[in-house]
């Protein structure tokens, strides 16, 4: 489904500023496309400069070089926003390395912590400072692995942390009109699943009550809702997008 075909959702952002981290490719790029198609001023924020700039040029967005683990990069992004109040932030950038416990090195653990958890923290801190008096919406991309045990002790740990951080931020930032929610995708057909064998994918998909793997659009539509005014009284929620797998 293309952005134009999904306009039945009735979501329009009317020039509001939205930042998508990890926006150069995959799920983040699709999010940026849909947001731009609905009138958002999008900043594609990514460490992948060539891909990010190309996408931004294509959809009429801006690009910001952002390593989510770098406080200096977040400060530069805030300067790029200037006096425009931020409406939405999608903390999408993430690293997926589902190693077993014996195969997880301290270096692997630290890197996943820095990207998935510390990067999300810096994003929330940035958004709190960049949002105006009308508040806004932060969507943290967690995972089904943030709701129950899964392979990859470092990855799972960070995604559980994102879940808890989301709830704390929702409580603390609510008085400022800032909503914070987390989404928890299950088996979604994105390049992240390249870490799985074909047999793993087949076996796990067979366990999904709806009988199929999810598509990136299944995540994007929920994200558009959470960024829009249609979800104006939803904050601190955790939404599983998993075909019923977590039930």
Word description of this protein:
This protein is an alpha/beta fold. It has one domain (11-241): Rossmann fold. The chain is 40% helix and 16% strand. It has helices at 26-37, 49-59, 71-81, 106-130, 153-173, 198-205, 216-227, and strands at 17-21, 41-46, 62-65, 86-91, 136-141, 178-185, 238-241. The longest helix is centred in the middle third of the chain and has 25 residues, at 106-130. The protein starts with 16 loop residues before the first strand and ends in a 6-residue tail after the last strand.
Give the SSE layout.
Layout: E1 17-21, H1 26-37, E2 41-46, H2 49-59, E3 62-65, H3 71-81, E4 86-91, H4 106-130, E5 136-141, H5 153-173, E6 178-185, H6 198-205, H7 216-227, E7 238-241
Parallel strand pairs: 1-2, 1-4, 2-3, 4-5, 5-6, 6-7
Helix pairs in contact: 1-7, 3-4, 4-5
N-to-C CA distance: 27 Å
The tally of strands reads 7
What is the name of the CATH superfamily? NAD(P)-binding Rossmann-like Domain
Overall residue-averaged pLDDT value: 92
Oligomer: single chain
Largest sheet: 7 strands, parallel
- The count of domains is 1
* CATH topology heading: Rossmann fold
Strand order in the largest sheet = 3-2-1-4-5-6-7
Strand content: 15-25%
Instruction: Tally the helices.
Output: 7
What's the helical proportion of residues?
A: 40-55%
Radius of gyration: 17 Å
Determine and state the CATH class. Answer: Alpha Beta
Second CATH tier, the architecture? 3-Layer(aba) Sandwich
**What are the secondary-structure elements, in order, as H or E?**
EHEHEHEHEHEHHE
Given as residue ranges, the uncertain stretches (5+ residues, pLDDT < 50) are: 1-6
Structural class: alpha/beta
| CA-based shape | globular
Organism: Pacificitalea manganoxidans
InterPro entries: NAD(P)-bd_dom_sf (IPR036291), Sc_DH/Rdtase_CS (IPR020904), SDR_fam (IPR002347)
GO molecular function: oxidoreductase activity
Family: Belongs to the short-chain dehydrogenases/reductases (SDR) family.
